[in-house]
Amino acid sequence: MNNIIVFPMAIPVLAGIILIFFRNNRHVQRWTSFFVMVVNACIALYLLSLIQREGIMRIDFGGWEPPFGILFVADSFSVILVLTTSIVAAVCFIYAFSSAEKNYEQTYFYSFVNFLVAGVNGSFLTGDLFNLYVCFEVMLLASYVLIAFGGKKNQLKESMKYVIINVVSSWFFLVAIAYLYGTVGTLNMAHLSERIAEAGQTPLLTVISMVFLTVFGLKAGLLLYFWLPRSYSVVPTAIAALFGGLLTKVGIYACVRVFTLFFYHEPEITHALIGIMAGLTLIGGSIGAVAYRDIRLIVTYNVVIAVGFILVGLSAGTLEALEGSIYYLVHDMIVKPLLFLIAGTMIAVTGTAKMNDMSGLIRNYPMLGWMFFVVKLSLAGIPPFSGFIGKVLVGQGAIDAGSYILLALAFISSIFVLYSLLRIFLQCFWGETIISTEDEMPMKKGWVIPCALLTAATIALGLGAESLAPYVKDAAETLINPQNYIDAVLYKD
Amino acid sequence: MRTNNVILRTVTRIVVIIILTLAVYLFLAGHHAPGGGFIGGLVLASAFVLLFIAVDMETVRKAVPIDFKLVAALGAFISVATGFGGVMFGEPFLNQVFGYVELPFFGETELTTVTIFEAGVALAVVGVVVTIILSIAEDV
């Protein structure tokens, strides 16, 4: 028993509720939210070191022992993601301080971001399948509100689509859980894993796993990403960064968890299908990323490519490939928000999202230009930055698993990522300067600092990959050996 | 709606009392029998909705001058705070305790912390339902 595991979800919930009472006090709202995320990051760091010493930990709510009660389980994989989430959310808060309009801040903006983070952390930590659904809903309800924030015409149009897609996929999720419960008779994730292993993964269970794959495909943007680019491109920058960094990642996490813990007995069906879907996602995302001239759409299509890339690792399923996926997941959670923040800042200073209307920004805003350059290299996987190690390990895993087509697609997609961002860099940052120094919009500190923090994070993650290695290795080993997870949940006091 | 609806108003006056009693009964019954905070809260909210229909909104607002958004927040706060109660005493999060206490009028009564949690749920439900109904009514 260790109550600290519940705090990454419980503290943001409590903070979000308390902030409702301080609706008109912007300072309390801002700094409470920021402080909560910093505390969460510290808790996650502490948990991470504790897990290395004491193994996987759990907390049974209300003292109800598994498999009867609901519980949170902290293993390295979950806690690494919680840590990254807290850092990213804190940085996005700093950006929101100087960019959110006053009426946003007074209509519970910070409360809803806190609820969103609570849902994300809860999804990462929960050890109960139905509770995973509930945490998904907490996150999604907050995101429904945040996507409609501001109430502009195209926002309402896109939020309508977003809500309908997500309600339908949540319904599928519920149906899948009901099927699984009807077949196996439990909802505790470790217990499910054990029972499926005992009974063997019958064709019926494989079919149920396909329903789960559909759900997570919709949530993560794996092949079923048609709703994603436009809805992510209408929201305000700070929220778009949070969405791009966190929401699809929860779908990816759920997909990885379900297909390494429950349905890992028939990889030639399930994992092969994930591989095909990932390959198609990479192709579709790459085409989208080079097809548009609106920088917001280019950036959101880059989110789609990353989803495909991470799931190539899951499809390969070896230890290296999973390690690579985890590295790349963490990298992507840091770099995608950075990309969104920089793109949003570019739009804010020029007043347009069209690539053709921007030129020579590097003369006006050198810092922004070079940070964009770093992001571009990091996303393409150039060595000193954080994308490199993930790409190498996923590639190695794909070779070990013999999936050469996926390997080729994954690395060709990196070239497309590089090309799509290089196009923005050449068009918008180089070329003739069209904003004269008099008309230049002053760059706010609140815009540069969050971008600089995330840039520093991607460099640190790239250079310090070695220090993260034991944690990532532990996380991947738990994914490869579900027995570790089962033992910790069912057979340890 | 300016029609002078005598029958509705007269019936409402009596029925609201019955609804409120039922709500309290359902809330307390919920510990061992069907009922509880969510259901009690819904019934309680239906009393408010009925008042809003029978009497006009301004009158009810004057009689019950509370912001229902804050009621919802207060309810959620109480529920989450009872979860932290367990943490304070070194027990798992959301742990609940109960005991039998001799009360002067009721005799031996079972008192539990779940009731506090459920009270929070009830307040949250009332707040949310009334807020939803009111914002729909304002739109039209």
Automatic annotation (TrEMBL), chain B:
Membrane topology, record value: Multi-pass membrane protein
Origin species: Compostibacillus humi
Official protein name in the record: Na(+)/H(+) antiporter subunit B
Keywords from the UniProt entry: Cell membrane, Membrane, Transmembrane, Transmembrane helix
One GO CC term on file: plasma membrane
PANTHER family: NA(+)/H(+) ANTIPORTER SUBUNIT B (PTHR33932), NA(+)_H(+) ANTIPORTER SUBUNIT B (PTHR33932:SF4)
Family: Belongs to the CPA3 antiporters (TC 2.A.63) subunit B family.
Family matches, as NCBIfam families: PRK12573.1 (NF009223)
